[in-house]
Amino acid sequence: MPPIEQILLGVALLLLLSVAASKASGRLGVPALVIFMVVGMLSGSEGLGKIYFDNFAQAQSLGVLALALILFAGGLDTQWKEVKPVLGTALILSTLGVLVTAGLVGWFASVALGITLLEGFLLGAIVSSTDAAAVFSVMRSRSVSLKGNLKPLLELESGSNDPMAVFLTVGIIGLLSRPGASMLELIPAFFLQMSIGAVAGFLLGRLAIVLINKINLEYEGLYPVLTLAYVLFGYAATALIGGNGFLAVYIIGLVMANYAFIHKRSIARFHDGLAWLMQIAMFVALGLLVFPSKLLPVLGSGLLVAFFLMFVARPLSIFLLLPFSKLTVPEKAMVSWVGLRGSVPIILATFPLLAGVPNADTIFNLVFFIVMTSVILQGTSIPIVSKWLGVYKPLEEKVAYPLEFNPMGDLKSDLVEIAIPSGSQAAGKPIVALGIPAGALIVMLRRAQEFIVPNGATVLQSGDTMLMLAQKDDLPEVERIVGTPRVKEGKTA
Prior knowledge:
The two termini are 47 Å apart. The protein is an alpha+beta fold. It has two domains: 4-394, Na+/H+ antiporter like fold; 413-489, Alpha-Beta Plaits (2-Layer Sandwich). The protein has helices at residues 4-28, 32-43, 56-76, 80-83, 87-113, 117-126, 132-141, 150-160, 162-177, 186-215, 222-240, 245-257, 264-289, 292-295, 299-321, 329-337, 343-348, 350-355, 360-389, 475-482; strands spanning 144-146, 392-394, 413-419, 440-447, 450-452, 465-471, 488-489. Helix 1 (4-28) crosses helix 2 (32-43), helix 3 runs parallel beside helix 12 (245-257) and helix 15 (299-321) crosses helix 19 (360-389).
């Protein structure tokens, strides 16, 4: 074993190279995660780095840890009021959608590749989930958003469909290891695992709010450590009692996101950074696992399955399951096209290898090729396809205010942005003359690119945006005075 200094140097160089390479991903329109994986491949034994790594057990362990932390961070970044209108649709896609996609791909793979139907279903289950990180990294890098409820729908579906894919993969591996077992055995196991995971996630999420607000730690830096330990505990404890640990940690994050607790913003930033670290480490490790020479034999098969997944299985699952949805045909087409595959399928592809499933090597290489094809082809074309389908919307620029707001657990105020529209009765008046309720305080004024700390004599102008700390009950009165609804919560402050 090399000295620890050499190991740390190698790790540091790989991380620095990945972060630096991610800068180029925006210009190329390729998700940063693909860049991370390419860095791993180039660093591998068949690349420039000559690092030999073939320990699938370690890669799987890293993947499970990374996925738990990424799902928690995704839940923590999800606002209930945004996803509530699409909750039913997202749940259908994250459960039945995954099942239909897995079934269609499994049938096609068994016919086209000559493998058994159960092995085909295993391949389908592995590639059945979509990747929110891949989707939104492309959209952010290309300044693309989507109209209506498409963005929250994709966000919730991508964040919640991984547990279903994990369940199907593990269940089918179990069936392959027990000849004669019936797929009907998976039905009660599914409801048991998901029920335990959902209940445990909700209860642990509510308990986390109480714990963080009441524990009163001496050092602020210990709060992220507390939540990190809590996430690991939530995943492990839920899995040990027979529940789906991945669903539990996602729901813990979702519950916490929608309640006030101490140091919420700093904790959220910590877990966002940790999620990125986990994604970089995981993709680099998975890139090291892949031997490019082994991908060539599956080139034709991989393209065949990837195209069937993108152009047949995913669209069919959307249109078959959402016949009465309020989504228009172009919106459904966009949802089907944005079904990018990412890290989860590659992590799941290590499960058959460790279980000794027949054709596991072929399945792993196929999955890797399918993921790369999906992300490169679908990821780079999202701006073009969204404009062609008429669902394109420019990404709203987030404003970084030169102040920090950390709500306390029992604080009843919100930090919101309220715009002064053209023709507003507030325009041309000093703040003191507006009659703003006592529970509302204008802490900063944004005028064009300038930030102003206002006082009572400051005269408002059309186009100004007020950053206001206000009691929730006072916001409707402020909006009435100004003549416009708030534009968004000041999450970026």
